Amino acid sequence: MKTRLYTPGPTMVPEQVSLEMAAPIIHHRTPEFSKVLQSCHEGLQYLFQTKNPVLMLTCSGTGAMEGAVVSVLSRSTLTLVVRGGKFGERWGEICAAYGVPFVPLDVPWGESVTAEQLEEALVANPGVRAVCLTQSETSTGALNDIKALAAVVKKRNALCLVDSITGCGVHELRVDEWGIDVAVTGSQKGLMLPPGLAFAALSDEAWEAVKRTDLPSYYLSFAKHRKSWEKTTTPWTPAITLLTGLARALEMIRSEGLEKLWERHQTMAEAMRQAVRTLGLPLFPRVPANVQTVIALPDGLDYSRLSKQLFNVYGMKTAGGQDQLTGKILRVAHLGYLDDGDIVAGVSFLERALADVGWKVNSGEAVAAAQRVLSRTPAAQ
Amino acid sequence: MKTRLYTPGPTMVPEQVSLEMAAPIIHHRTPEFSKVLQSCHEGLQYLFQTKNPVLMLTCSGTGAMEGAVVSVLSRSTLTLVVRGGKFGERWGEICAAYGVPFVPLDVPWGESVTAEQLEEALVANPGVRAVCLTQSETSTGALNDIKALAAVVKKRNALCLVDSITGCGVHELRVDEWGIDVAVTGSQKGLMLPPGLAFAALSDEAWEAVKRTDLPSYYLSFAKHRKSWEKTTTPWTPAITLLTGLARALEMIRSEGLEKLWERHQTMAEAMRQAVRTLGLPLFPRVPANVQTVIALPDGLDYSRLSKQLFNVYGMKTAGGQDQLTGKILRVAHLGYLDDGDIVAGVSFLERALADVGWKVNSGEAVAAAQRVLSRTPAAQ
After folding, report:
1. Pair (A246, A352) in one structural domain
2. pLDDT tens-digit profile of A231-258?
3. Within a domain: residue B4?
4. What domain range is A136 assigned to?
5. For residue A166, what is the DSSP state?
6. Is the same domain home to A145 and A290?
7. Given CB 3.0 to 4.6 Å as the disulfide criterion, which of A309, B12, B194, B361 pairs with A353?
8. In CATH, what number is assigned to the domain containing residue A49?
9. In the prediction, which pLDDT does B380 show?
10. B247 φ, ψ (degrees, to nearest 5)
């Protein structure tokens, strides 16, 4: 059976990228590989919209979050951590592991934090010198408005750390223009690669903080990675094949263009959301990210039965809820290497699987609803 | 041009493993992927000769070394670090980064540490509770006799940490039988995979130490990895494609059998060493590991010219010296996915490149010398 990943990571890998990575491996201390690194450097600066170096780490996105904490914060940096899901909580867990004092700003799962809430929290905690945010909270599907939030953080002269792991390559992200101090992402999301690489873009102010940190680090040290970056090399043996794939994936992104890429994800997400509404199903997040459509499962619609039907019969792999959301939501992701056709296919399978498990469906209505949204804009090239 | 890697990492990846990794990516929270993990668990226990879990981390070998230090040692663990090259020094750098107090036992680069030297150092430093060793010191080509050294460490009731990054899958390694407390390796060496994964096997005593550590960690935490291992999952999104490749590579190793694998590397190394001696070139390490043949370049034999001739004309990629050995040695590695034919080819290219750069060579003598060694045992199946 043909299977398709509608999951928020890993996402589908373009065939040409997979084959690039299957080519005979090259050594990493060669002019040939330096060219790959150079190409990745430029592509990542474009992706993050920054003039500063974007570090490439061999680890998962969590490793880059940890690298950010231990490289940019210090034992005395009072940090505000916005927690609206599993990944917001992760910032707090990493701070706790290293003894970085933090104040949580908790919003209910599914909600986004507003600029007003953040400002209030910063006024109430005037000692805060850093704020940890999540652009797309993958566990709930909620989008946080990083542009507005970063402006609040910068006004109070604190460092703004952003987990853009599922946001980057899907939603607008302008590191330099928006005043973001650290933005991190992983390879297996909008970058369309297998997992194993993570990336971090830092502002000049963040680089100054790197010089002052008193937290211990070695493998994930941003200082060590920066030093190697300057010489177009890496501090440790990197995931060579994933980096050759990255160079290729970044070429695809540059060729599409960031504005078009963001627009494509916007259109695909709107189409899927419209289809879900047509099916009579509620969306879980109040302000949904374009990364995935998160359905709040009504009584009588069993997650396990539905997701198994989708995968076993239609080859459509979706994700469920984690922690407190286990069994309560279905996550249909649409980021990375997908086009309009994949959206129509996904809606079609969703319609049929819902009917299979006894949900009342007027066959074709959701597909038609998605189709009307998709037809508003020309198909992506 | 056909190129061949005679480098101590990355090493050549078998075509069937590359193609396995190029297959459509699967999600990591599925029964399908659990089977991959289960197969890796079993294969790694065989490779390390241990009944305990072998952790799989998404990072380079250095990340696993750091994971070992921060998970198994503590701020008060006085540690003896044997330093006979760049990688022995790395143990010390990691200890220093986390404030683990350590006593260095320095041996000249190219030398191996003896059981007597180690015993003496432990007698002189009775407070030592852990010892960091390097099986195959990749920067010099020296082999350390881990079986004998671990026995000395265990007699003094200290923890024995072994960097087996280039040793594992080449030299005999028996974690349980030899009383090793932590052994680590990376994917891009004897395991024939691209870089991006690292592994760690721990003794029961080491697992007890994990419970007591007061050092901070998160992404590389062995405690977190162990907890997930028990559930046949991973704490973070792992390098999925590399793990599917690992399952395949471990199958190849199990099918060859460890004893035959060690013997193959022994034969290949002896053949290359004999060829090098025939060429009138001295070996650098006193006790050479079977990982690579490290040539001490005599006056008049320029590293840069020779290595470029080897690569540009014959497609033979070798490695040079690092740090104090820059320009002084040529490293011809022969580990992983190589057979007798690759050794003969390598010797042939080495002969010809040497002649090209003006070294006096009796054409065919070195190839014949290698051939005589290889012919003593049947070709590997």
Report:
1. no
2. 999 999 999 999 999 999 999 999 999 9
3. no
4. 15-256
5. T
6. no
7. A309
8. 3.40.640.10
9. 65
10. -55, -40
Euclidean distance between CA atoms B347 and B374, whole angstroms:
12
Domain of residue A365, CATH code: 3.90.1150.10
**Are residue A91 and residue A79 in the same domain, yes or no?**
yes
Q: What is the mean pLDDT of residues B239-252?
A: 98
B246 and B281 fall within a common domain:
no
Q: Is residue B134 part of a domain?
A: yes
Instruction: Tell which of A239, A256, A273 closes a domain.
Output: A256
A280 and A293 assigned to the same domain? yes
Token couple for B266: 């022994």
Q: Is 0.90 topped by the overall pTM? A: yes
Query: Per the domain annotation, does A201 fall within a domain?
Result: yes
Contact B10 A24 (CB under 8 A): no
Could you tell me the two tokens for B133? Answer: 């060793």
> Nearest 10 degrees: CA dihedral of A243, A247, A250, A252?
-130
Give the pLDDT band (50/70/90) at residue A381. low
- Report the pLDDT averaged over residues A19-44: 97
Last residue of a domain, one of B256, B285, B316: B256
* Token reading at A217: 């680090």
- B271 and B332 housed in the same domain: yes
Can you tell me the distance from the alpha carbon of B272 to that of A34, in angstroms, rounded to the nearest whole number? Answer: 30
Q: Assess whether A104 and A151 both reside in one domain.
A: yes
User: pLDDT tens digit string along A135-151?
Assistant: 999 999 999 999 999 99
Which of A5, A27, A70 is best to mutate for the B interface (most B CBs within 10 A)? A27
ipTM score of complex: 0.96
User: A30: distance to nearest CA of chain B, Å?
Assistant: 10
Chain B residues lying within 8 Å of A68, measured CB to CB: none
CA distance B117 to chain A (A): 29
| Helix, strand, coil % over all residues of chain A, rounded to 5 | 45, 15, 40
Q: How far apart are CA A358 and CA B84, in angstroms?
A: 69
Average pLDDT, chain A: 97
Q: Using N-to-C axis directions, what is the helix angle for B222-230 and B61-72, rounded to 10°?
A: 100
Closest chain A C-alpha to B312 CA, distance in angstroms: 12
pLDDT band at residue B381 under the 50/70/90 scheme: low
Tokens representing A379 are 């198909």
According to the model, what pLDDT value does residue A380 have? Answer: 65
Q: How far apart are CA B300 and CA A307, in angstroms?
A: 69
Do residue B139 and residue B230 come from a single domain?
yes
Chain B residues in contact with A5 (beta carbon < 8 A): 25, 27
Q: How many domains does chain A have?
A: 2
